[in-house]
Amino acid sequence: MPKESMYVEQDPEVVFDAGTKNLDDDGKPKRTGTWLTASAHIITAVIGSGVLSLAWAIAQLGWVAGPAVLMVFSFITYFTSTLLADSYRTPDPVTGKRNYTYMDVVRANLGGRKVQLCGLAQYGNLVGVTIGYTITASISMVAVRRSNCFHKHGHHEKCATSNTPYMIIFACIQIVLSQIPNFANLSWLSILAAIMSFSYATIGLALSLAKVVGGAHARTSLTGVTVGVDVSGSEKVWRTFQAIGDIAFAYAYSTVLIEIQDTLKSSPPENRAMKRASLIGVSTTTMFYVLCGCLGYAAFGNDAPGNFLTGFGFYDPFWLIDFANVCIAVHLIGAYQVFCQPIFSFVEKQCQKHWPENKFITREYALNIPIYGVYYVNFFRLVWRTAYVIVTAVIAMIFPFFNDFLGLIGAASFWPLTVYFPVEMYIARSKMKKFSLTWTWLKILSWACLVVSLVAAAGSIQGLANSLKSYKPFKTQQ
């Protein structure tokens, strides 16, 4: 009775006010993200496995075209990310209705069949990235074992090791982490992953610099690999296209930009904080990319390996190589979650929408975990997310081609998600007149990027075809 009387005496308006203080304008729990956490998410998503192939990409393009292509992709990515950041709220970028996903943004600004095309491009790319990260993380794990083998037995040993067990280990870790309920809870993982990405990029940079300063006389040229010496004429063309795809992949984060922006608190305005985070993220990654790519090319020349930390361009000091590869693996563990959380959220929301009465899909069971507190278990989330991780791991085991896979993913996602939709939404939102000066140059930019994506995709598909001819599934890496 005393408890009951206390409850009755509470003022309903006070209770309501206390509740609304913890809610945002859309009725959801207050978002707490800042430009700093958004920058960490971006750096986690951008400085990924793409940085490892940049020395090879610069080797295909040469001293002139290589850095120029990097800078062009950097500018385009930042410019279109600012357009996309203004689309998070509609119709007004500061006070309008929130859009929670990339598809929601396209639906609010363009509508029609373009929404389905956006979903196909976005989620297809996200699936491809998670497969690519499974491949890359396993290669780095294998590299630690091979590095120790070379140190113990000498560089003449083959030190053959299968990637498959390490893909299984990576998948098991992801099955556990995938049970994190939502994207907003990943800030700590993204910050850790961002630290790891800086660590291994810095190590690769330092080792390349040490090799150059130590008197390495690698053969380089203004135009990259030499026709008739390193490659045939047709190989030069295909490798150039693939290198462009690799660089496009290195800048891919538009697919998760809206999901990152949805974690930001509303003051200062989300679009302003996101633009600041994009500037910091893209500027930081570009600096690392130029340094890693150019110094890697200077160190290894036209013989630069596809992955300069696991292709064993470096052998010593072995412990530093091991540490760098551990950092890669830890980073990709976090980056995998940054890219797959939007997939999880999309599928779960669609299922709840279509089967709202299904208890297997909707019911949450409270589980009291020591130290952590109460964790809510949903059996559909447990089964579906586990199945997704297993499927991506199996595909990675069947097609473990690092450079070719990264190039294809980058080519397929760059034009539609990084350029086309942000440009079209900006034109629609601003009600821009056709054939005006701004309309014309935006359309030229979009069509030029489409051509770039097509040639990059062609080079990557040709590389995949060549790799498949000589590949046997589940063979050991040598």
TrEMBL record:
Residues 31-464 form the Amino acid transporter transmembrane domain. It comes from Tripterygium wilfordii. GO terms for molecular function: symporter activity. One of its GO terms (cellular component) is plasma membrane. This is Amino acid permease 6. The lineage of its organism: Eukaryota, Viridiplantae, Streptophyta, Embryophyta, Tracheophyta. Carrier protein involved in proton-driven auxin influx. Mediates the formation of auxin gradient from developing leaves (site of auxin biosynthesis) to tips by contributing to the loading of auxin in vascular tissues and facilitating acropetal (base to tip) auxin transport within inner tissues of the root apex, and basipetal (tip to base) auxin transport within outer tissues of the root apex. May be involved in lateral roots and nodules formation. Pfam families: Aa_trans. Its main location: membrane. The chain crosses the membrane at residues 35-56, 63-85, 123-144, 164-180, 186-210, 277-298, 318-339, 382-399, 405-423, 444-465. Keywords: Amino-acid transport, Auxin signaling pathway, Cell membrane, Membrane, Symport, Transmembrane, Transmembrane helix, Transport. GO terms for biological process: amino acid transport; auxin-activated signaling pathway. It comes from the Eukaryota. It is found in: Cell membrane; Endomembrane system. Belongs to the amino acid/polyamine transporter 2 family. Amino acid/auxin permease (AAAP) (TC 2.A.18.2) subfamily. It is a multi-pass membrane protein.
